[in-house]
Design brief:
The protein has 192 residues and is of the alpha+beta class. The chain has a domain at 2-108. The chain is built from 2 helices and 10 strands; from the N terminus they run ββββββββββαα. The strands form 3 sheets. It has a 4-stranded antiparallel beta sheet with strand order 2-1-5-6, with no helix packed on it. It has a 4-stranded antiparallel beta sheet with strand order 3-10-7-4, with no helix packed on it. The chain has a two-stranded antiparallel ribbon with strand order 8-9.
Length: 192
């Protein structure tokens, strides 16, 4: 038996125990994911079943194997003769799925139903255990170190006493040089 499903905007042809890589779906590794967007179901030697009327309740159940990321895709933009170049990248978030069962009526696989029943009591027990665990560390907790003292504020800088003779401390400015006298010329430009 095979099915064509749609997830992440893409279509996949799947059969039982197939492994597929799809865009990120929520779920921890080992969790069972139900994909109810089934486009077609077929069997060897029979005509495939199409259409939303016949496949209204159909579902594909898959186990999350791992959450991963795809290979890096380099994005490079350039405008020639303008000195514009930008380089970026992208890694798509992916989920690896193993197809557990294909159901035309939407019924969960037997193994998945048994796992769900086993996990429910564990979840209740796990919720009760942390409260008991939290009490022990409080009794055995070490005393906290005293809080660190805040550093003292720095004293304000003292004002420097002014020198008695400001003129002695500063070098005297050089007197401006007198401009040189221009040589006198007659009307024709000859110097006198």
């Amino acid at each position: 038996m095979f099915a064509v499903i749609r997830t992440g905007g893409k279509q996949y042809r799947v059969a039982k125990d197939d492994r597929i890589v799809v865009e990120r779906l929520t779920g921890e590794p080992g969790a069972l994911v139900e994909i109810d967007d089934v486009l077609m179901i077929g069997e060897a030697g029979k005509a495939p079943t199409l259409g939303t009327d016949e496949l209204g309740k159909a579902a594909v159940f898959a186990e999350v194997v791992e959450q991963t990321r795809g290979e890096k895709i380099v994005v490079f933009k350039k405008n020639r003769r303008a000195g514009y170049r930008r380089r970026g990248g992208h890694r798509q978030l992916l989920t690896v799925l193993r197809i557990a069962d294909i159901s035309a009526c939407g019924k969960k696989p037997a193994k998945a139903a048994a796992k769900a029943k086993d996990e429910a009591p564990k979840a209740d027990a796990a919720a009760a255990e942390p409260a008991a665990v939290e009490e022990k560390p409080k009794a055995e907790a070490k005393p906290k170190a005293p809080p660190k003292a805040k550093p003292k504020a720095k004293p304000e800088a003292k004002a420097k006493p002014k020198a008695k003779a400001d003129s002695a401390a500063k070098p005297k400015a050089k007197p401006k040089a007198k401009p040189k006298a221009k040589a006198k010329t007659d009307d024709k430009g000859a110097k006198e």
